[in-house]
UniProtKB/TrEMBL annotation:
Domain of life, source organism: Bacteria
Protein name in the entry: SDR family oxidoreductase
Coiled coil feature spans: none
Residue ranges constituting the NmrA-like domain according to the UniProt record: 7-246
InterPro entries according to UniProt: NAD(P)-bd_dom_sf (IPR036291), NmrA-like (IPR008030), NmrA-type_oxidoreductase (IPR052718)
Length: 290
């Protein structure tokens, strides 16, 4: 049982990569395990955290009743953006439940320049940010730029086919998931973040620079080949990415080429209290984590 008057903090999406890391960072920041509510579907992944006293709850985001009961008595919430096509509706359910629970701060993991971006993937984030603006819940928008892991997760493919993209010489701001998670934990445990929109990202790098960093770390040459956006969509479709996600993912590279996934580094640096990890070290860490 909690023994202090610390706020109780819920993480919606704690079973995922970022959410779990956010829970770990909340604990590292001294939040009592009994003051952390960790939710998701695959809660068996959180057994170790439950063993430490974290309140683990299975919550399906479409189930408004389950979301509401998870947020009862909660003071702050990290809403990790979802993955389902209907995620905006799920976010609406969570935001309304947070408002009804009288939550004092809700952090939402959005995307770079979500309010103005032409990148297709940002449309759901823009809509969710609009829901937040219209809601009575004080919020902090954590616009996470790209994960280093988006690229390191593809290393097996890179070894076989090289790295193929359509981003040209465009730069994308990268950081490790754990860094975005730590920033979220800092915002959720800190003061003065309500009403803020943070553009979070680390070093701004090009695709050839990522290929070079991966090559150096794996000790094998990975070449970057640039193709047209439509050609990239076709490659993704051939690799089994279903429509419309083939077009949505290819469109990310169009966005990178246009500089739409580039953010200044100051917000992340300020929340972390240090600069984000440089590219090569970040690639090394992500690959050694598996
Ligand atoms: N910035 C980037 O580069 C980037 C890259 C990829 C994704 N994203 C976004 O950032 C989010 C966090 O990234 P991540 O790597 O941590 O993703 P992830 O590992 O896929 O985590 C997604 C989380 O959302 C939960 N979730 C999804 N649909 C749900 C539903 N219907 N009901 C209950 N829980 C649901 C998942 O629960 P279960 O696992 O228990 O089902 C999981 O906890 C993603 O969800 C996505 O919106 C950003």
């Amino acid at each position: 049982m909690p023994t202090t008057d610390q706020p109780t903090i819920a993480v919606l999406g704690a079973t995922g990569h970022l959410g779990r890391l956010a829970v770990e960072h909340l604990l590292q920041r001294g939040v009592e395990p009994g003051r952390v509510v960790a939710t998701g579907r695959a809660v068996e992944r959180l057994e170790d955290l439950a063993g430490q006293g974290v309140r683990v709850l299975p919550v399906e985001r479409d189930d408004a009743g389950a979301v509401r009961s998870a947020l009862e008595g909660v003071d702050r919430v990290l809403l990790v953006s979802g993955t389902d096509p209907g995620r905006v509706e799920q976010h609406r359910i969570a935001i309304e439940a947070a408002a009804d629970a009288g939550v004092e701060l809700l952090g939402y993991t959005s995307g770079p320049h979500a309010d103005t971006s032409s990148v297709l993937l940002m449309a759901d984030h823009r809509e969710t940010e609009e829901l937040l603006e219209a809601s009575a819940v004080p919020s902090v928008v954590l616009r996470n730029a790209w994960y280093v892991e988006n690229y390191t997760a593809q290393v097996a493919t890179y070894r076989e086919h090289g790295m193929v993209g359509a981003a040209g010489e465009g730069r994308v701001s990268l950081a490790l998931r754990r860094e975005y998670a730590e920033a979220a934990a800092a915002a959720l445990t800190g003061e003065g973040h309500a009403g803020k929109v943070y553009e979070l990202g680390g070093p701004a790098v090009t695709m050839p620079e990522i290929a070079e960093a991966v090559s150096a770390v794996i000790g094998e040459q990975v070449a970057y080949t640039d193709v047209a956006v439509e050609a990239l969509r076709g490659i993704l479709a051939d690799a089994g990415v279903p429509a419309p996600m083939d077009a949505v993912f290819a469109d990310v590279d169009r966005g990178i080429a246009a500089g739409e996934l580039l953010v200044p580094t100051e917000d992340l640096e300020r929340l972390l209290g240090r600069p984000a990890t440089p590219l090569r070290a970040a690639v090394e860490e992500a690959l050694s984590a598996g």
